[in-house]
Design goal:
Length: about 200
């Protein structure tokens, strides 16, 4: 894992009754990610179909999250959107608990661009009651590399991001929960199958 500004000294946000409490990242994150240890895809119930997998490094810890088609809702785990000829994909990933999707949860948006997009727009991580964003508005960033689109609908890529705990401000825009909190490094590899258009 590449060195980042928060490696080894990270903090996380735990919310108790609206009070923001900062705890040592290393001790807190280990428990948060316990349910995201590599799981067998078949552990998900019959209502879900695994269509992709994220192998992640979140700070000093690792997690495996899964992109899921939610069959009863006909909702794909990899959603394609097109606006004025520009295509982007929202790629979700979940931990597994008792056969159902659980936190932590990630969403990586690639694009926009002409098909096939090879850029990244954002990384969003939900865990421990907090939302972490790569948006520049909160001081985050994201890069993508090794993007491979296969003729069979397969997609794989690597990404690296710096995310910060964020919330909606009074004007509806995102703002940092605590601007002085160090950025959290989230990076990983995704491999999956995109449904035909």
């Amino acid at each position: 894992m590449r060195n980042g500004p928060c490696q080894g000294t990270l903090n996380t946000v735990v919310l108790f009754g609206g009070i923001v409490v900062f705890t040592r990242f290393v001790s807190a994150l280990a428990g948060i990610l316990a349910i995201a240890a590599p799981a067998v895809a078949q552990e998900f119930g019959d209502d879900y179909a695994v269509v992709g997998q994220f192998d992640l490094a979140i700070g000093e810890d690792t997690a495996t999250l899964y992109s899921l088609d939610i069959l009863p809702e006909n909702r794909p785990g990899i959603e394609r959107h097109e606006v004025m000829g520009q295509v982007f994909f929202n790629i979700g990933g979940y931990a597994e608990s008792d056969g159902k999707p659980a936190k932590p949860q990630i969403e990586v948006q690639i694009g926009p661009g002409t098909f096939p997009p090879k850029t990244i727009s954002s990384v969003t991580l939900l865990m421990d009651g907090a939302m972490f964003l790569s948006d520049a508005d909160v001081g985050g960033s994201a890069t993508i590399s090794n993007v491979v689109w296969g003729d069979d609908g397969s997609l794989s890529f690597d990404f690296a991001s710096l995310v910060r705990s964020a919330r909606y401000g009074a004007d509806g825009a995102f703002e940092p929960v605590a601007p002085d909190l160090p950025l959290l490094e989230v990076e990983g590899h995704f491999a999956g199958m995109v449904a035909p258009k």
